[in-house]
Amino acid sequence: MELIVFDLDGTLLNAGSQISPYTRDTLNMLAARGIHYTVATGRTLHGARTIIDGQGFVLPQAYKNGVLIWRPDQSNYSHHHFLTHAEIEHVVEAVRACGVSPFLSTLEPGFIHRVYYLPLRHAFEKRLADHFSELMGIEVLPASRLPGDAEITSISALAPAPDIEAVERLVENEPELVAYAGMALEGEGLGWIDIHHRAGSKGNAVDLLREELGAQRVLVFGDSSNDLSMFATADEAYAPSNARAEVRAAATRVIGHHDEDGIAHFLRERFELR
């Protein structure tokens, strides 16, 4: 058995954050041939569901960069790696010390995902809140409304790049945490950071799926730094030409651009799909 694992944004999805008709037809060809595939994405289940529903994604799926494993056949999460209260306190203090407003992503009873924010100081933070709400389909609320039974899956922030780098330095020595950071698409010299439990990585999720599904080979596709852990554990790793430089360098091969159906064209060639 070969298992294909897709990142979504910047990889399988086009610039409109959708699966194109050509890629959709390619997924149908894979399913018809009995070739197994799934996703490992930084999105939440609800942020991905409207995109991948009906596209043959029936195997376990990794969300929030591997923090959560969703079982479609059971309609339940089988694995999770939440932040502890001590880790949350440490990260929030570090973020606020750098003059940055943290956003707390949660999983709440009933499989509800929400995002909570501390007081917003800048217009770009308000735009990030709108992004969570509009693109990801997640309710965004002030931290004063955070319920006591909410589990924190990750803490993220958007800020000028030097401030993000300062946050990254403050949490890099925390042994149970991992931080992904980079330049933000919003421009204006902004950076982003996403901090979560170290055990909740895409690489660990891929290892788990390999073992549970009995896959002999795993092929992965990704474009950003949060994909490097699954590149390291996969048998084959492919980066679209739009991927970050360090991801292209780690790839088995660099293939076509995500907004030009690069992954779908490669798959049709690799598996001789007609």
Note down, in words, how this protein is organized.
By secondary structure, this protein is of the alpha/beta class. It has two domains: 2-80 and 200-270, HAD superfamily/HAD-like (Rossmann fold, 3-Layer(aba) Sandwich); 85-197, Hypothetical Protein, Haloacid Dehalogenase-like Hydrolase, Chain: A, domain 2, CATH 3.30.1240. The chain has helices spanning 8-12, 21-32, 45-52, 85-97, 123-134, 161-171, 202-213, 228-233, 245-250, 262-270; strands at residues 2-6, 36-39, 61-63, 68-71, 76-80, 103-108, 112-117, 139-142, 151-160, 177-183, 190-197, 217-221, 236-240, 253-255. The strands form three sheets. A six-stranded mixed β-sheet has the order 8-7-6-9-11-10, with helices on both faces. Strand 7, helix 5 (123-134) and strand 8 form a beta-alpha-beta unit. The longest helix has 13 residues, at 85-97. It is globular, with a radius of gyration of 18 Å. 42% of the residues are buried. The mean pLDDT is 93.
